[in-house]
Amino acid sequence: MTRDELKQKRIGVLMGGLSAERDVSLKSGMAVHQALLAMGYDSTALDVRHNVAVMLRDEKIDLAFIALHGRYGEDGCIQGLLELMQIPYTGSGVLASALAMHKLYSKQAFAAAGLTITPYVTVRQGDRCSAEQLPFSLPVVVKPVQEGSSVGVAIVKRPEDLQTALDDAFRYDTLVLVEKYIKGQEVQVGILANQPIGAIEIVPKNEFYDFEAKYSDGMAEHIFPARLAEPLYQKVQQQGLQAHQSLGCDGYCRVDFLVTENGDCYLLEVNTLPGMTALSLLPEIAQKGAGLSFEALVEQIACSAALKTGQAG
Fold first, then answer.
1. Exposed / middle / buried, residue 158 (Cβ in 10 Å: 0-12, 13-18, 19+)
2. Does the active-site annotation cover 19?
3. What percentage of the chain's residues is helix, strand, coil (to nearest 5)?
C-alpha cells in the first residue's frame, strides 16, 4: 500500500485490550496514534474491549494498526476477527500470531527448523514438580506459556522456591515452562519488511530483563549494535530471520536471544507485536540500524497492512 492509498484510509489503532499487558499496550497505542496524526493520517484510538467488533463497525475503520500485547491481541484472536470483518491489519496473521504467543509450540517449531532452544519441561496446573524431578540442575527459569513482557517469569535458584514460582506462573496460565537457565548476553534482533535490521544488547539492572527493566526508565542499558564479533552478529541476525520465517510471521517482529561466550545463540521467543513505547527496542533498532524515525517506522508498518487469508469467496 502506498502512502497516498494510506491517506485515504480511516486507521483504527487498537490498544489496551484485556491482557496483563494492558497498560503497556495503551502506551504503545497512543505513541502510534500520535505519530499517525502528526503525519496527517486519519487515525482514531480504540481501547479494545469485548465490543471491539461493534467499535470497528461504528467507527468505519478501513485499516487496523494493532498495538495490542498479550492475550486476545497478540495470540491470533483479534487477527481472526479482522479477517472475518475483512479489515486489513498490521503484523502477522492468525496462525503465526498464535504460534509465537504459545512458548511451547513456538519452541517445537524452532527446534524443527534447526534453531537452538533452551532445554525445558512443561508442568500443568495441579501437578507437583520438585527440583529433583527436573532433567537439569538449578537455576531454572519458570514462565507461563502464553504471556509476554516477562509477566509471571521467575529465576529459581533454590529447590524450596520452585513451587512458589510455579504457583505465581499458574496465576496466568494452566501450563508453565521450566527452562534450564542459560547465562549469556541478552540480544534482540529487529525484523522489518521480513528482513533483519540490526541486533541490540540489553544489560538490565535487575537479574534479568523483567517487566520493571523493560518499562522503567534507567533500569536497563541498551547497546547498539550488540557487542558481538561480526560473524556472530551476522549469525544472530540470520537466526532471527529464520525464527521469523519458521512461524510464518509477516512484516515485522522482534526476536529474543541469549548468546553465550561460546557463541551459541539460544532462541527465546518471537514477539509479533513488539512494544512501540519510548523505551521499546524495535523503534530503537529501526532508528539506529535502518535510520528510520519513529514516525517513519509507524508509517512503513501501516503501509504493510493486509489481509492474510485472502478475500472472502
1. exposed
2. no
3. 35, 25, 40
- Among residues 28, 92, 149, 304, which one is catalytic? 149
Q: Please indicate whether residue 149 is annotated as part of the active site.
A: yes
The question of whether 21 is a catalytic residue gets the answer yes
Please indicate, yes or no, whether the overall pTM of this predicted structure exceeds 0.85: yes
pLDDT tens for each residue of the chain, 313 residues long: 999 999 999 999 999 999 888 999 999 999 999 999 999 999 999 999 999 999 999 999 999 999 999 889 999 999 999 999 999 999 999 999 999 999 999 999 999 999 999 999 999 998 889 999 999 999 999 999 987 656 789 999 999 999 999 999 999 889 999 999 999 999 999 999 999 999 999 998 766 554 444 545 667 899 999 999 999 999 999 999 999 999 999 999 999 999 999 999 999 999 999 999 877 999 999 999 999 999 999 999 999 999 987 644 3
- Would you call 207 a catalytic residue per the annotation? no
Ordered structural domains, the chain, with CATH: 3-91+297-303 (3.40.50.20), 99-116+184-293 (3.30.470.20), 120-180 (3.30.1490.20)
Which among 209, 215, 233, 252 is annotated as catalytic?
Answer: 215
At 241, list the grid cell. Answer: 530471520
